[in-house]
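Appendix B. One record, verbatim.
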Amino acid sequence: MAGWSAEEMERPVPADQVAPEGREVFISIRGLHKRFGPRHILRGIDLDVGKGETVVILGLSGSGKTTLIKHLMLSLPVDEGAVRVGRFDLARLSTDDREAYRGGMGVVFQHAALLGSLTVEENVGLPLVEVERLPTEAVRPRVVAALKRVFLPAEEILHLKPDSLSGGMRRRLLVAKALVHSPPVVVLDEPTAGVDVELRRSLWSYMRSLNAQGVTVVLTTHYLEEAEALCDRLAIIDHGQVVAVGATRELLARLDEKELHLTPTGRLDELPAALRELGAELLEDGRIRVRYRPSRADVGAILERARQAGIGIRDLATSEADLEELFLRLTASRSPALLQGARRGAVLGEETV
């Protein structure tokens, strides 16, 4: 098995458009459908990923995000639609191309398992042996470096079997194995599931450094914080369709909604008509809340209304929708119970298809 050549890496897919920030499109998905019997899981997915970009795919359980990722991993065949990565058309891979494609990918499956019969060193070093065909003496330094990058005590665990380690450590081993051969494209399905918050954030830092080196990264997550921390662009999937894609700030701007909180100098018994016309509310703590659309109104106009009504303002603050609110708005057709769970924990649930 061989990895991708330099020529293959410099050959982006043909695409109708250029990815954001002038990047060449390196992953192109067009009209991708997937059915399992009567279940229509993917319903015409269209998505481009630029070379060297990080795109995070976010969705509720059952939305289709893992099914989409499995096509990039070659775990599912392309039955309807087109998926291209670099020079590779995933619907038409020869045996040699399939091996070459796998050799150039770094992959972390959501429910992947390590080989229990092999040591940590042998598990993590497999891509170096199979892809780069390194001699045994050259493998250990690369494995040690990969383990340290995911914050594992390399020298202490090289000789151990994976089953003797904790679940979080095994998850980190999978990340180390996926990245040990320095792949140009990394596909990660829930890469930080089962690890603690501190370690999760350390892994985010590592993944951002990979991206800065020009590695193309596609990952799924059900952690809203992770999506915000990692993505150049965010793709939100609902009912097997991409319902929004773009930088987080761009997507939030589409909501066109902010809140202004005014603290009056004196306690109000009721709001004057001038503010009620704006949809203002008098809160229990005495503050005035005004929801407004920045595209149609500005804070200055609202403050002028308050002044004309004889209300003195002691303090003010503005707030706007966050990623959680955006996600809930775009997936409002889904189960209320799931949405409430997402709102409470900012965790969107796992997916198996």
